[in-house]
Design brief:
2 domains, elongated, mainly alpha
């Protein structure tokens, strides 16, 4: 229960209002009441159950469904053009294996431009790998091979930099922890 209470308390005001309104509109008054009780009042589970006039099993089901509603709302908030592009990259094999070569290349080039616009270097490796394979018998193979290698090297460099930064903060934490 503490997890759900923390989530509800950390919701932004607009998210809270949006979830509360959607629960009210869908005739889920008990869920809306539970959301409000968790957000605005410091009541124990047993007091909330008494207010809602439900038994323990119904209360836990209600909490579980409220948690699902909150998760669904937060996932909908994540929808963006970036997520759409990532979904397209994830479904790239469908294009590669079902479309004709020229259509596939045009699709990959369009995805490449979008990924460059959103600075999604990791996903670009997938695109360049596919373009490299599609151009195996053409002069462009070397160009795509170089782009692929460059982006793989970039990914590895970023990964190494993140590891070094994490180690740095770990050492700083240990240093300050010991001095106290």
């Amino acid at each position: 229960m503490a997890k759900l209470k923390n989530i509800v308390k950390q919701l932004s005001d607009s998210d809270y209002k949006s979830i509360y309104d959607s629960l009210s509109e869908s005739n889920a008054e008990k869920s809306a009441h539970l959301l409000k009780a968790l957000r605005e009042r410091q009541l124990s589970d047993s007091k909330i159950m008494v207010e809602l006039e439900v038994n323990a099993n119904a209360y836990y089901t209600l909490r579980s469904r409220l948690n699902q509603k909150i998760e669904e709302h937060l996932l909908r908030q994540m929808e963006s053009p970036r997520t759409d592009i990532l979904r397209k990259v994830a479904n790239l094999n469908e294009v590669l294996f079902t479309k004709k070569r020229t259509i596939t290349i045009a699709t990959l080039k369009k995805l490449e431009k979008e990924l460059l616009d959103y600075d999604l270097a990791n996903e670009l490796t997938v695109i360049y790998k596919s373009l490299k394979k599609l151009h195996i018998h053409s002069p462009d193979h070397f160009q795509y091979s170089q782009l692929y290698n460059r982006h793989v090297a970039y990914m590895l460099a970023v990964d190494k930099a993140e590891d070094l930064l994490a180690e740095y903060f770990k050492k700083i934490r240990q240093l300050f922890h010991v001095e106290r």
